[in-house]
Design a protein that fits this description.
By secondary structure, the protein is mainly α. The protein contains 26 helices and four strands. A hairpin with a 4-residue loop joins strand 2 and strand 3. Helix 16 crosses helix 18 (365-374), helix 17 packs across helix 18 (365-374) and helix 20 (398-417) packs across helix 21 (428-435). The termini are far apart.
Length: 509
């Protein structure tokens, strides 16, 4: 049983336990875990600490603290489950309160997330100083441990990195914040007002997620919410197709690439999470990315979680198309109107011989619609000839390409030959890296015979590369006056063999 247990505002449970371990005087980390959880089968966890049910049963007599209070107020549970459904959230809660939760991070996808956790605990030196004055000690806050958050929103300064590892080799250790492992002297102000404003806006939303139990919704709920929002902002066509390029461009303008990189959410990476965000799917996105999109679309958390998005009929897809109603008309009027439409269509066709049917239709939608409705036969009989694909392949002058590529490969090879230090193997991919473009693809090399022949003469086999490394090692050892023993040579060359191969022996001889 624990002697005492107290908590501070926004304090991580890890930090609470670490402080209480110091007060108890328990030296053995495993013994402390047994006192806290009633068994040694648990380890320290930063954001989602399992075994809370056991912790409650071992609190001092008379304690009124409940498992729900600790889970909601001292772990990242509400943050990580904000955008998960009821079933998933309940399962995570049970892992923390009842079960051992040993595989909880892997089961909810945090281990495979592209947003990586911090390596050390983060802290704000000004928050720590205030705590020292009012409490006599300071602690690790939840908001400062969220991946990507590098600024204290309250004081407008950069967070400092402590010396306490989030995932030490000894997983039973609870290490409390102290002036020994946290430098309180270093204070770095955020000079960029735009970056500071963005961080403060983001941390305000995060604090809401950490301290408010929003209703758990299905993935489809959020999809409809975001889809309706981008419709209102004009990011979709009439048919509901999403303009991904426009969204990405304006998203970048809204945040700026430096800020997106700092919160590990760049949209210029090879795997573009923002493009996937507005597609119908069952994929889970990190809460940070939900918040970035919510702020970009000008939404509030209350709108996202409480508004009934299925009732947003003004922006629902598949709106009824405008219909052209056949009017009651006399034969005289119809004949006159038909003649006018015929002349108009023939004029458009004559003045724009390069355009196809769709382009002519765009020039005069009303004419096309009338003819399609009342005289479709005329329309198709006087349709323009099919226009070939505008995006036809550009013919490549392979002889010229061969000469240009050969020149590039020759220069790249000379660069590799004169590299300082231990030699690197000459390969086609290495040459492409030096050139800076993929110009040596196998499917194109047959069309560039001169380049292919030269490439085959310079690309090194493992043996040929080994010979060059050994020759380099011999030259270096001669400069240093080292004895020419084969094991010294291959060690210097970086070739790891118990016995020298024939070609190694020949090189040294």
């Amino acid at each position: 049983m624990m002697i005492s247990f107290d908590r501070y505002e926004d304090e991580l449970l890890y930090s609470c336990l670490a402080r209480n371990r110091l007060r108890s005087g328990t030296i053995s980390h495993k013994a402390f875990i047994k006192d806290v959880f009633g068994t040694e089968g648990f380890s320290a966890s930063v954001d989602l600490q399992p075994g809370i049910g056991g912790l409650i049963s071992n609190l001092p007599v008379g304690s009124t603290i409940t498992a729900e209070q600790i889970i909601f107020q001292n772990t990242m549970y509400l943050f990580h489950t904000a955008f998960r459904n009821v079933v998933q959230s309940k399962a995570i809660y049970n892992e923390l309160a009842i079960n051992n939760g040993r595989d909880i991070h892997n089961s909810i996808g945090l281990m495979s997330s592209s947003i990586r956790p911090n390596s050390h605990f983060m802290f704000c030196p000004l928050c720590a100083r205030e705590d020292m004055e009012s409490l006599g000690e300071f602690y690790f806050r939840r908001i400062h441990q969220i991946s990507g958050i590098m600024v204290c929103g309250k004081h407008g300064i950069w967070l400092n990195q402590s010396q306490v590892l989030l995932y030490p080799s000894n997983s039973y250790v609870f290490e409390a914040a102290s002036p020994i492992n946290c430098d309180l002297r270093s204070i770095r102000k955020v000079d960029d007002t735009k970056i500071l404003k963005q961080y403060r806006s983001l941390t305000n939303c995060m604090e809401s997620l950490l301290n408010t139990k929003y209703p758990n919704r299905e993935v489809e709920w959020f999809f409809r919410c975001y889809k309706n929002a981008i419709k209102r902002k004009g990011y979709t066509s009439i048919k509901g197709r999403v303009n991904q390029k426009q969204i990405q461009s304006e998203f970048l303008d809204f945040y700026g690439e430096p800020f997106l990189l700092s919160v590990q959410s760049s949209v210029e990476a090879e795997s573009n999470w923002l493009r996937l965000f507005f597609q119908r799917h069952r994929r889970y996105f990190h809460p940070i990315r939900h918040l970035l999109v919510i702020q970009f679309l000008g939404l509030s958390l209350e709108e996202v979680f409480y508004n009934d998005h299925s009732a947003d009929s003004a922006y629902l897809p598949n709106k009824p198309k405008r219909k052209i109603m056949k009017k009651t008309m006399t034969e005289e009027y119809k004949s006159k109107a038909m003649k006018e439409r015929h002349n108009e269509w023939l004029r458009l066709k004559t003045e724009n011989p390069q355009l196809g049917m769709n382009d002519l239709r765009k020039l005069s939608p009303k004419t096309y619609a009338w003819l399609y409705l009342y005289d479709r036969q005329f329309l198709f009989e006087h349709a323009p000839q099919k226009v070939g694909s505008r995006g036809g392949q550009v013919r490549v002058d392979w002889k010229q390409r061969d000469r240009e590529t050969l020149e590039k490969v020759t220069k790249a090879f000379e660069t590799l030959r004169h590299e300082s230090g231990r030699p690197n193997r000459v390969t086609a991919s290495r040459i492409q890296e030096v050139i800076g473009e993929k110009c040596l693809q196998k499917k194109h090399l047959d069309k560039m015979p001169a380049t292919k022949k030269y490439l085959e003469s310079i690309v090194e086999t493992p043996e040929r590369f080994g010979e060059r490394r050994i020759q380099w090692a011999i030259n270096e050892m001669q400069k240093d006056g080292e004895p020419m023993l084969w094991w010294r040579v291959i060690r210097r060359a970086g070739i790891f063999r118990k016995e020298p191969a024939d070609w190694i022996g020949n090189c040294i001889i």
